[in-house]
Amino acid sequence: MAAIEIKNLWKEYGQDVVLERLNAKVEEGEFVTVVGASGCGKTTFLKMMLGTESPTRGQLLLDGKPIPDEPDETRGIVFQRYSVLPHLTAVENVMLAGELESSRWLGRVFGGKRRALREQAEEMLASVGLDQALGKYPHELSGGMQQRLALAQALIKKPRILLLDEPFGALDPGIRRDMHELVLDLWRKQDLTVFMITHDLAEGFFLGTRMWVFDKERLDPQTPGSYGARITYDLPVGNSDKGTLQSITQSVDSTARVLGA
Amino acid sequence: MKKLINRQAGPVGRWALGLLPFVILAVLYLVASDARLDANPNDKLLPSLSSFSDAIERMAFEPSKRSGEYTLLVDTLASLQRLGIGVAISALIGLVVGIATGSLPLFRAGISPLVTGMSLVPPLAILPILFIIFGLGELAKVMLIIIGITPFLIRDLQQRAEEIPTEQIIKMQTLGANTWQIITRLVWPQIMPRLLSSVRLSLGSAWLFLIAAEAIAATEGLGYRIFLVRRYLAMDVILPYVAWITFLAFALDFALKRYSQWRYPWFHGAQ
Question: Cys bridge to A76: A104, A154, A192, B218, which one at CB 3.0-4.6 A?
């Protein structure tokens, strides 16, 4: 059974059609990057995966069942900003999931249990390269380190699906490359199923196993909202040539111009 | 020479510029006081420095002839107790209601209109009602402070709770948190430093309500004393009392600020 199954999915806000006739299957262990112009429903799609928005028509299935209509521990998330909790130190941020699970009322654990959680958290932080920053608050960390922390925090919960919402959009190019390597490494080692939203086409082209391009096939410049975006390309990563990248770039750019105008 | 808008004071210059207005005011007072006392040695409006020190000696360091107590000490303790109880209860109510309405939309829909309406009632206008209901004792004075600042605290904290990024609330849910855990592990800890800064802002009004209540019905207290000696035009007592109240207000504000910086480094570091 596919991990994620999308059956004739539509999302409309009143008159505006954001997404239309989405159909796809994603197997466990796939790494899907979602690219497209702003306004093409990438974020809306992510919100439906999270459960903060629900489809207008069609179905979005996780392991054969409709995806829960509120966020829960089956889907982990790393946002571009505000992903980690500013009032907790790095190691506390990572321990949080375990504390919440073992203490429904206090949300805190003590003694031996706490030591065990702390050990796990330290291990996880070491695997994302943050073993030197255990006791630091997020504001003392650089942007790249904060995103490493956010990854560690999400992964310790072992989510069924990991959602990444432009996680590296605010980072410097060099640091972004390091983060790509880190994400690929974690994905391989932990058998994750990943959806990553990005507006960087090149990023989508070499990261992961599969790239989706969200774009409007039909576009009325006077009323851009009358037709929704679809998955116009569904490409296995690594098998595409330069020509494809160029034609995708052109098509996405022209949509972006219309939507941005 | 740089444009005025680009010129900064050095460290010494900043102190000097900051002190200058105080010095000017002090000099102006002394000159005016001298001039009036020259014309009429019994003038009470602008007392000399020596009558101030006499008054301070009498109020603060000598037991009162009537009761054997140190008047300033008794007044200060009485006022601080009322202020402390009033502000603490208000902060507690503000925290609980503010968090509830700020993070739970259903609570917000139910309670917010009431709080908004209440906050528009001028508290001093219902002071007579408080005296009628709660009598002339301590309760009425504390209640005035509570009624005066609680609506502000609730609204401010509700807004602060709403400002917590949605991303973090979603994040908590993906880590398995239920509503109660989101409130206790995310909203409450993040609101606490903001509560302290709201309390600092509301202290000014709290003093106002305290002194107003004491002026009308009390047997001791800083506000009571000022209004009592007003009958004898005792500026030599009133002015030191005002200075003392100002100092107390400053010390409270300073202590809260320092405590917040020490206890919530992440809050002040991220700003």
Answer: A154
Per-residue pLDDT, averaged over B58-85, amounts to 90
A5: domain CATH number is 3.40.50.300
Instruction: Inform me whether the C-beta atom of residue A144 falls under 8 Å from chain B C-beta atoms.
Output: no
Q: Which of residues 26-55 of A touch B (CB under 8 A)?
A: 50, 52
Q: What amino acid occupies position A244?
A: T
CATH code where residue B238 lies:
1.10.3720.10
Residue B138 falls inside a structural domain: yes
B270 contacts A139? CB cut-off 8 A: yes
Is B48 a domain residue?
no
> How many residue contacts between A and B have a Cβ separation below 8 Å?
85
Specify the number of domains making up chain A: 1
- Dig out the tokens for A200 from the structure: 């960087």
Q: Is A117 on the interface with B (CB under 8 A)?
A: no
List, for residues A107-122, the tens digit of each pLDDT value: 888 888 999 999 999 9
Directed axis angle between helix B235-263 and helix B49-56, to 10°? 70
Q: What whole-number distance in Å separates Cα of residue A193 and Cα of residue A75?
A: 10
Check if A71 contacts B (Cβ < 8 Å). yes
Are B152 and B261 part of one and the same domain?
yes
Name every residue whose Cβ is closer than 8 Å to that of residue A129 and which is 6 or more positions away in sequence: A148, A182
pLDDT of A261 reads 57
Closest residue to A96, CB basis, from B165, B170, B185: B185
Minimal Cβ distance to B190: which of A87, A105, A154: A87
Q: Which of B164, B170, B174 best tests the A interface by mutation, with the highest count of A CBs <10 A? A: B174
Could you give the CA distance from residue A158 to residue A101 in angstroms, rounded to a whole number? 13
What's the pLDDT band for B172 if we cut at 50, 70, 90?
A: very high
A-chain residues within 8 Å CB-CB of B264? Answer: 87
> Cα B49 to chain center, whole Å?
28
A129 is written with which tokens?
Answer: 């390269």
Q: How confident is the model at residue A236, as a pLDDT? A: 81
**Pairwise CB contact (< 8 Å): A139 & B178:** no
* Domain-located, residue B61: no
At B95-117, the pLDDT tens digits run 999 999 999 999 999 998 998 89
B165, closest residue in chain A (CA to CA): A82
Question: Which residue among B170, B178, B266 sits closest to A87, beta carbon to beta carbon?
Answer: B266
d(CA B18, CA A170) in angstroms, rounded, equals: 42
